[in-house]
Amino acid sequence: MRFLLKKLVRTVFKNWTQFFSVFLMAFLSVLFYTGLEGTWNGMKQNINHYTTRTHLATTTLQSTGLSENEVKQIKNLPDVSKISAQTEINTTTHLKGSKRYLAVSTPGTQQLSKTLQTNGQRINTKVSGIYLNEKFAQTNGLHKNSTVTVKFNNQPVKLKVAGLVNSPDKMYYTGSNDFISPQNQNYGYGFISDKTLMNKFKLPLLNNVIEIKDSNNQQVEKQIRKLIGKKYIALQTQKSNVGIATAVDRVGQIRNISILFSIIFILLAVLAMYTTIRKIIDQQQRDMATLQSLGYSNVILSLYYSMYGLLVGGIGALVGLAVAPLLSNFVMASQKPMFSLPSWKIAYTVVPLYVALGVIIICVLSALFAAQVNHGLTPAQAFRKGSTAKHGKRVLLERFPAIWNKIPFGNRWSIRDNLGNKVQMLMGLIGVIGGLALVMTGFGTKNSMDNQVDQTYGHEYVYAKKMNLSNNTSQSEINRITKQVHGEKIESVYSSLQPKGEFDRPLTILDSGSKIKLKTENQQKIKNGGVYVAEGIAKTAHIKKNQTIRLQPSFSDKTIKLKVKGIIKSSAPQGIYMTKKTWQDQGMTFKPTAILTSRHQIPQKIKNNLAVTQVVSLKEQKSNAKEMVNNLSSIFLMIQVFGILLTIVILYNLGSLSFTERSRSYATLEILGFSRNQIRNLTIIENLTITSLGWLIGVPFGYWFLSRYVTTFNTSQIIYYPFISTISIALASIIVVAAALSTVGMMGSRLKKLDMIASTKGVE
Amino acid sequence: MLSLKHVSKSYQNGSEVTHALNDVSFDIESNQVTVILGPSGSGKSTTLNILGGMDRPTSGTVTYNNNFINTESDKQLTDYRKEIVGFVFQFYNLISNLTVFENVAISAQLENKKYRNITEKYLQKVGLLKRKNNFPDQLSGGEMQRVSIARALAKSPKVLLCDEPTGALDTETSKRVFEILKKSKSKDTAVVIVTHNPLVAPIADRVIHIKDGRVDKIIDNPSPLEVEEVDWG
After folding, report:
1. ABC transporter domain: from which residue to which, for each copy (chain B) (predicted)?
2. In terms of DSSP bridges, do strands A465-469 and A594-597 run parallel, antiparallel, or are they unpaired?
3. Predicted confidence band at A764 (pLDDT cuts at 50, 70, 90)?
């Protein structure tokens, strides 16, 4: 076995280009899984540790404000074990010359969703200052002992920064439902003591936010609704709370990517290993026959070939494991700007070791399987097999002489050769199809997300500004402002959805107008006489058109029953919609929460009006949404790079295998008088044929793959529809074709070294 | 026609230099069968490679019709192989995935647009026209060598170089192959057969004996025997 091992090592070195592709696939599959596991598992553990350590509430009740007695009653509910009542108010401040929005809250008992201080004193009731969230403070240049003046009800309140904190229910903090990505500089949160609230803000404890630890969300929701009636706004579970769910969803998204792409690379490793070993066996047929005749058993020889899998697959897997932390840290770093976590450590389970082991076993088995072609042959048979001419086979295309006869002989040769060697051709096709699918997915995922942003903030939302209104604004004041800006009103509340609604969803009631242009799957506008549900909700809650659903909206103790008139094909937000008339027909009062206008300039007088809490421009919303897409661009780039790499490696491997097999024939052609260019053209045409065929299958496959892949980014708030621009398809095609043709260039150098003299000798 | 003057060829093998040919000079004439005879390792294949434009000598000159071959560029050498030389290999070197017809035609079309007729003509000449649609693996060794000869002849070469053309064949098949090769000489075409088998010598117009990389002797044979007249043992 010692000498066989020497032979093995020398063969690997001599044929390193072929084994390199096996190495690379083994390496990439382990790297991709392990690298991304380091990120998602690290995030998962950091989140788990954070939420456990801070006793994250299972549900958060938002209400208009509760009495001490009501708080007590909630605490005594059978499914509730712990509560923490807080008062939350929305304030504004001016920092670095711009208006900032700061949600200020009392800390409650700090037994649930406990804040973690990163700088300064721990939160206590005696401190008169404000604890600011870390990212808001940092981006605005605030630190401990800085002074910040906040405005509440137009009254300034001066506060000293007592420390910097993070709250576990705000791991992903957007600060406003109008934005989907954090705007750390513009939106922040802070904590003040009960005493500060009362003394400086002149407010009593409102108890409008109750953190709850319960054992049954849905039961608790029913019980609380019964208890507090119209004071109920929404009950957010960990699954529906954007601040928590987005972080948890991101773990799932990265995990899905790691599994999906590792499987692709493992499959390619199998193919690369199988074809490479088959070629090595073909090349070494006479060596093997000689060894057999010397007394080496078929079992030993099979073991010998399986060692190739062990050696190459093993090195690939080990290097993959070794390099993985770099990828883990790279992806982890890309997530930091979006989330607020106390720790960003990468972490691994034992699964990467199983994946590495699995990759090695798969390589060994595919090598062993490939080696079975010689099993059962006597040495004489093996010798004969090594010296007889390869079988020539006719192909289907020859039945069409009109086409076949026009094909030059050199190309007929490569067509027959390829079609007669299905595994090799399949590998080439898979290289192109897989590469194209990956590059298309890399471009397409970004296109899909960009398209979602463009659709939402360009085609569905067509206002210029959205003016959010204070809860206690009178109808006459709303009407006056609406008239001034030629606006249209909407009401945004929350509503439970029965059956199977899981948690409270956003419910939007639209007044007449055209600033929100949502359409159903059949391109129908939202009309009177029924409710409309976004597609993502419809899927998760199994809601069909014409089905009757029950809604229990915020600020109401009523349950309304309505027929689903249509499913809205919209990415975000995933909500429920109806017209003002439908709403009022159910006996509900239309209380606008925002005014939409086409005006780009809002008079300062209106901006300063206490009824208008905030003015958001569609442009801001759009650029904020783009930021979220950009945050994922490192992952898209990674997919594109791997796609290009895959195409080059697989096609080079294929070309290299064919070249080795055909080098004698190429040399014969050169002796006959074919120029190197003519021979090179044969390889180019062959390469182009496989690339074209791969492209034809690859484009629809790539789109299908993209459509599956974008769904891994779906959350309870946003769903993505596959979209890839023509430019992206063209670019992906150019990249893949260029990658495929670059392998011809690499072949060119081998063509120069073609040994004509050796080809005149016997077959070895 | 084709002339070697003081040709030497050395190979560097690590620190060791192997002299494959040493000051070899001889001429190849058209309308003649020239046999280059020598034992294994004598340098006859190196001579053939230099004659065929597949290798360059270390020193000396190779001329074809007074044109220097040894100084030509790679492209000119390719043209030389395409236009002047036909090559018959010991192990046939047929392309497995091309039919008999296509194997010959791929060579014929290099020089002639009416390659179909030419291909069929030479397949007829070697007696394999009926097998034109077969693949090489469906032929016997002798048949494969005849296809190889047809392929070489289809280019109408001025020099037909044959490297141990019967080395892998039995006696009866070899005789048939030699008959075809002998008939291939013409006023425009020289046939060169490289072999270690001295029994081939009587059919040649000229026999060049090579030993240890040198020309041992050159024997001109004014009345060569027909293949049938030779005692093949």
Report:
1. 2-231
2. antiparallel
3. very low
Distance to chain A for B229, nearest Cα, Å: 30
For chain B, give every domain's residue range.
1-84+157-233, 91-155
pLDDT at A389 over 60: no
CA A644 to chain CA centroid, Å, is: 20
CA–CA separation, A300 and A313 (whole Å): 20
Please report the residues numbered 88 through 107 in chain B whose beta carbons come closer than 8 angstroms to any beta carbon of chain A: 89-91, 93-99, 102, 105-107
Residue A763 CA to residue A761 CA, distance in Å, equals 7
Model confidence pLDDT, tens digit, residues A173-191: 988 888 888 888 889 999 9
Write down how long chain B is: 233
pLDDT in tens, A451-468: 989 988 988 899 999 999
**Contacts of A417 by beta carbon, 8 Å cutoff, 6+ apart:** A658, A662, B97
Q: How many CB pairs under 8 A join A and B?
A: 103
Which residues of B are less than 8 Å from A763 in CB distance?
A: 91
Nearest to A760 among B79, B89, B138 (CB): B89
Superfamily of domain B1-84+157-233: P-loop containing nucleotide triphosphate hydrolases (3.40.50.300)
Residues 661-690, chain A, touching B (beta carbon < 8 A): 664-665, 668-676
Query: Tokens for A391?
Result: 């079988």
In the predicted model, what is the mean pLDDT of residues B61-75?
86
- A 392-421 → B contacts, CB under 8 A: 392-393, 409-410, 412-414, 416-417, 420
Burial class of residue B231, CB neighbours in 10 A (0-12, 13-18, 19+): exposed
Q: What is the pLDDT of residues B98-155, one digit of tens each?
A: 889 988 988 888 776 688 899 999 999 888 999 999 988 889 888 998 999 999 989 8
